[in-house]
């Protein structure tokens, strides 16, 4: 076997390995989609094969039982609220600590990123108590503020790192030309940091939309509970019908999947650019 | 302070540095400090109200004996002493150690995939897109989904039976070790894409020629991986390892919630689930807080390294 055939064989093996992982990554989702399109009887007959006939009844039933539109709305409000608030707060901090003569800025920066070491799982009860004391239990603002606080360290870090790369001369030049601080931040720095902002927005959207513990504890059984809390009830309640549960799961995962596929390029370039230091 | 609406001048990159600006007067400096203080206020308020205050209250609660709906009383270190003798707590931390022992897989598997994608194997863009998909699926959804897939009559066992591996078609979620193994495997399915993305970002910072030489060099794949790529990628490998090590202590909550609820017995009981269970199911708030603080200490010790890295990255002036 000469060198070239060996190289080619190696390439085939390599591609094969990548394909195997790709199948493993996608198969569980395909199985769930296929199951969701089967009738209950059809699933019982042949749980693994393709459906004999496609039915959308499971989706209708899942929407009806779970009050899906309300859950979707709750998730959307809290996710977008938390995402906007945390990115905005991070933008302001990043500007203050990197571009202002602001004594104590480093300390503030350190204090904020240190909170990364406090996971929600460890402080969940006192956090719940605090939200309760603020009168925000079961309210959108309670979850939004909590999301914003937990998204803050990473956002501050990424944006500060990005702003740090912008030469101070550029800021001085804009200031000499009469630009105010907010113009500099929102019209000069934010556009430069677009890749980081995009990656941050997508990343925050994914974890806030998908989070279970914070909404489970803060929203509990209220009408403002998020989609993931609603989905978590699926695991006990209608366990018997795999097709119905599957339909609920697909509805729950579809929004993030669509957002990811649409913004895939921005996410990749943002992730790549953010670390290009 | 006024919000100027003058259009931003074209960000010209000057050939020579602009004239140094005159040192601002004292009061202008002071004004700038107040502006800075106002800008960091919202973030500080969020961090204090939803992180630091709860942490402080958690410490306080952990020193109290408060069970059920009874009142609370100061209990000193009782809750912490109790933890050392509690078999459930001990097995939860032992399970956490077992999970941490799988760390090499978490570190190496995404690395290999990232390198294969980075050297532009056929269809690499497609694979890069597909590998991140599992990470976008909510862990609670992943958990419920895999309960169906790992069911005794589910597709995994059907596949094993079909290829003649009947003895391997076990009750995945119901064995002393198979349950923990399944939990970790599902978590790996859920998070490996994030690792691939992280490594790709790291690889992008290495000059192309350096890597290309390594890829084309005659040495075997594994040797190149560990002798050429890993040393160059050390910061990324370190970052991802630390993230995973602290992550296994906190990422698994929704998976446990959906897959095993800590069982069978306490085979898949991990600290993050135990905090929730003790506090909200058994209503033992003081004890739950103590376990939470112990968990915080473990996570903090692990992730303080990434915080240090982040601090230097975020405050360093560009070269």
UniProtKB/TrEMBL annotation, chain A:
Show where the ABC transmembrane type-1 domain sits. 72-263
Q: InterPro entries attached here?
A: MetI-like (IPR000515), MetI-like_sf (IPR035906)
Q: Which CDD domains match?
A: TM_PBP2
Keywords from UniProt, A to Z, are: Cell membrane, Membrane, Transmembrane, Transmembrane helix, Transport
Name the Pfam families for this protein.
BPD_transp_1 (PF00528)
Family of this protein: Belongs to the binding-protein-dependent transport system permease family.
Q: Name it.
A: ABC transporter permease subunit
TrEMBL record, chain B:
- For region Disordered, the annotated ranges are 1-21
Q: Where are the transmembrane segments?
A: 33-53, 96-117, 129-150, 177-201, 237-259, 287-307
InterPro entries reported in the protein's UniProt record: ABC_transporter_permease, MetI-like, MetI-like_sf
Superkingdom, taxonomy of origin = Bacteria
Q: Which residues form the ABC transmembrane type-1 domain?
A: 92-306
Provide the topology term for how it sits in the membrane: Multi-pass membrane protein
User: Is the keyword Plastid assigned to this protein?
Assistant: no
Please state where this protein is localized: Cell membrane
Major subcellular site: membrane
Q: Which UniProt keywords apply?
A: Cell membrane, Membrane, Transmembrane, Transmembrane helix, Transport
Into which family does the record put it?
Belongs to the binding-protein-dependent transport system permease family.
The protein depicted here goes by the name: ABC transporter permease subunit
Protein species of origin:
Micromonospora echinofusca
